[in-house]
Amino acid sequence: MKNYFQTIEEKINLKVKLEDLKIIDNTHKHKGHKSFSPERYHIKLILKSKYLSSISRLEAHKIINEILKEDLKTKIHALEINIVT
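^ that's the sequence the OP posted. Answer follows.
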């Protein structure tokens, strides 16, 4: 069985040319929150992409959110996106 974060990476790589991707699981930092669920992730994506860096930050975030749209409904509670050059 594939690691869920590998699945995220594959989904993004199908749509966007990346030079590097780091996925950081920050779920443990949110255990005390009212809406915390161990089945839903709090993740941070650090994406290195010439393409995403060449467009507006808003457009880049929209692309990533669209790619992960279904995951945001079911598996991802919070998503932080950082695009680096």
